[in-house]
């Protein structure tokens, strides 16, 4: 793979002018819906307008130009929507006709060398539109300069030297189109080449200080990388992981890494990514996580490398809801002082922040936002453009509605490395991102929010009638092959969507309440997903346990959509301690069997941990009785009593936990704490701190698949036992049964794909909380007789071959033997 040029900064023309010329307020009251909608249908209208133009109209002309500022080459890239290049009399007549149709703000008698046509789809009243936006003109001006420089200058007659003599001019035309009415309005202004060059030079000069900063930072960063070594002695198998990851990155490929907890997966992926960036194979690292708690490891990895001399900048993005300084999050200039005039001040704030520090923490970010009175969330997104690494949630790369538009909006490929941490989580997260649902009850509720607007209420009623017809056809739940039977509902929904969109034009003064906005986006999301329906989806309707009626568009296999996102970077590494079986994750995340994979064995001594499976208890629904809960409680007591220390107990659900706890005899002088379904960050830290304290033995009751079953790092005897109650199988229901049926239609084992693989992943993640370092030791107890079945045992890691079978009657003796052996081997136990 080619290397980047150290003193070259690449930027699209659109990003350049929008960055330099932005001003005004953040205001999501009117613009968000219209802008998003225009983006989605803009390409279709672009093609239609381009197709209606004369034969001398060249559409989608790719342009590149390298400008210079001090030590930096600024590589500008873009694609002009259209260029009209007159050559003959007939062409000049066509051009004259175009000029006649366009609104020209000056009388120009000079001959026009060519016209740049920039097409914008906007949801505005065309009658009230009397001029083109400066940012759109600037974009076309840049294309004009780039095209002029790219032409054979003698034939084109636009060189600086002869431009005055020949009196040749260039037309800048902005074509606006309404997305619904398709009404078109054009504005054309004629410039001399000299005027265009002056504007272009101004934009480059304004951007130049930023480009120079990037170049100087790169020099320092790249020099530091050349001196950087791995900060610790390699653990067994770790160097092999680092080498495989590095080869994957510089070759522009994908890799799945299955590596056990404690081997150092985070540092094993971050370190080679840092080297790839430092050697100019890549421009930026995206470290992607599923949960906030797991970002700590990524931040720690970069900090460790920085302590060892690395000069690399990074930012960990915080969600808008968490970082907003206001009590109520309303992003408009009336209700938020940070939104008012934000774009007038944000460039100065960002430039200040990136010069002040490389380690951009939340505290530094919010302090800077307060100093300049700008939105801290939007500031963080701007700053992310100028740093080397971004630590963020999966959503910012993979979710079509949340992904960072400044990187991914145009579909172009960037020089990015994607590190996908805890990648086993991405299957379900991606299914959520690419699925959609609507409830009949939403439409009834929406009527009161839109009551003043009869046209909208009429369409809501139409949708509601269609849903009522479908509801009558459904007993409990019903699969609709290829969306059969919902066509008329979708047509009604499209009419509703058009009516909702028109509100921003007909009633611009109306501020939609939060509930109305959420309803709009649910409608929009449903229609978007419906357009993408294919063999990877299942459509079904159901009566839910909450008493609602739903239409669901379920994305069963999100791999294709995920790969579209991965294609916008140069390399993707999926890694986790539980990517087993690897073929399952290759199929649902990657490129199928084409994806490369590497497995690392555990570097830790298996003699320091005991794995037991109970042969006489189960969490099966048919066995959920008081006597079964009591036997499980006896196991928990026997295990936690066998050695003084801290234990984590993972249950299949909160309800199951409560039932066992009610039947369990608890010990005195032991602290019992519980994970709750909703916990603040402070409460989570308080829960974990109880295990870091060594004064009182602690037993934590948690839920499999929850916040404490992965991503937490409790070392140095903080936990000496993990007890897992049940197999973690998802609850039987319409969704899981539909997944099962889908896989069976593909010739696969539906139970494995819909139930066993996801369930066992939760089990293995919970078990991974025990051994984190070479000094750790303890017990893993699997309390369900189903773990003895071949289908379950085949999912265990290769190093679990020493598992022992126990019963309630002999469990205590087997545990005592293990702990006695630990003492005999001089393991430090209290």
Description:
The chain is α/β, with parallel strands linked by helices. It has four domains: 8-208, Lambda Exonuclease, Chain A, CATH 3.90.320; 324-387, no CATH class; 434-555, Fumarase C, Chain B, domain 1 (Orthogonal Bundle); 606-824, Rossmann fold. The protein has 30 helices and 26 strands. It has an eight-stranded parallel β-sheet with strand order 11-10-12-9-13-18-8-19, with helices on both faces. Strands 1, 2, 3, 4, 5, 6 and 7 form a seven-stranded mixed β-sheet that branches. The chain has a seven-stranded parallel β-sheet with strand order 22-23-21-24-25-20-26, sandwiched between helices. The relative contact order is 0.09.
Largest sheet: 8 strands, parallel
Low-confidence stretches: 88-92, 94-105, 153-157
CATH superfamily of the largest domain: P-loop containing nucleotide triphosphate hydrolases
Q: Into how many domains do the coordinates divide? A: 4
Q: What general form does the structure show?
A: globular
Give me the Rg, rounded. 31 Å
**Distance N to C terminus:** 54 Å
Largest sheet: spatial strand order: 11-10-12-9-13-18-8-19
CATH class category label of the largest domain? Alpha Beta
Tell me how many strands there are. 26
Structural class: alpha/beta
CATH architecture classification of the largest domain: 3-Layer(aba) Sandwich
* Content of β-strand: 15-25%
Q: How many H/I helical runs?
A: 30
CATH topology group of the largest domain: Rossmann fold
Q: Look at the structure and give the mean pLDDT.
A: 89
Helix content: 40-55%
